[in-house]
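Hi D.,

Good news: the full-assembly prediction came through. Inputs first.
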Amino acid sequence: MSETNSGGREFADRTVPVILQINGIKHELQLEPRVSLLDALREYVGLTGTKKGCNQGACGACTVLVDNERINSCFALAVQYQDREITTIEGVAHSDQLHALQAAFIECDGFQCGYCTPGQICSAIAMFEEFKQGAPSAVTEHLAETEIEFSEAEIKERMSGNLCRCGAYVGIVEAIREAFDKEAAR
Amino acid sequence: MRAYLPDYELRVPKDLEEALAFLANEPGMWKPFAGGTDLMVLLEAGKLEHTKFFSVWNLAELRGIEVTDESVTLGALTTYTEVRRNSILQEEFPMLCVAARETGGIAIQNRGTIGGNIVNASPAADSPPALLAYDAELELLSSKGARKIPYKDFHTGYKQMKLRDDELLTGIRLPRTTKSLRHYYRKVGTRKAQAISKVCFAGVAKIEDESVADVRIALGSVAPIVLRCEKTEAVLRGKSVDERTISAARAALINEIAPIDDIRSTAKYRLRVAANLLEDFLKTVRDGELN
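Then the structure:
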């Protein structure tokens, strides 16, 4: 007898071995290839810091880092990210030392309910990298600009993929600016 | 309603040959899955047409930007981020970089691919108008062999295209003939970030002795397909850009496009804005203000 939740349908075991490197730890999983990276993180590895909001790429709650680049993990398949270094919110602090952005979000009230915060912070970490590399955005005046001012317009555009339904944007922008200034001053 | 996941199958071919075999063995049954930025939205909405998918994301053969003296060829899996950061594209194909950086947020730009934008075949896609204006050519591959097709002949109707069931889009070739052109790209959406276009306009023109020596115009969200507007171009070619020419071109464009009322805008608004963008394009290239 099939399980009731399969609607009476029989289906073959289509799982494959998938090795994911997450926050410096290697996880050997057995997944169906259609499992999203987000579901793999939350349901198979138990890292529930990464949140599922819209599950269709509009809200950014599921943002994680892959080799320091941000992606929506709801869109990604886990099998597409083998042999890559995946970092989630659980991996951004250094032992008991908060990441500068985590500390700044607390300092500046960069959240209310906190659900979007892991995605906001992962997204902002990648944004710092993009600035270091001199990557222009949609509001940068010249297409090939490499010396880009860390302006409020740039922060807002570059964080536009991360929604906050509590509307804590003022605090979020302030936290990002504070963390960036601290990092720049180091 | 969200799709019932066990109804869907996804495989991971180890190379391009194995990927093409999926298409050849069961034509029409399998669909390639790249960045997932369109397909996962349809999955979430329970509107996926296919049930069998294979991931092409890790196929190195479909990645990279190849440059020769004559052309720049984008692998079908070139992401928006790779497009907007490429210095040759910034220099010679700026409209493509503008389109890339206005498509979704940056996390989306890290996943979404140019090839996917083409074969998803949305008339509201942002990079196709630029590709049409740059006279792009598509490279298609099946287990029987490769062929090329001008991009302007590719889309034939809403979500219809000249892609055989056994074929995969592998590359997009851009001829490097843009140096003497002026480029103009505008996307009009409800808001600046994260919006799908109401109207999208891409145009290039060569102005000699104050008249139009060459012009190519393409629009998104104004027809069942992303539309190259050759009738409007014909009205402009050889003419000086004065009020009379502008007025004739506006009239030609309004006849050539066929926008509809939908969730994002109305036909009336789109006609007006498309004609206004055409006028702004013509005045901008005439007055020499580059994009």
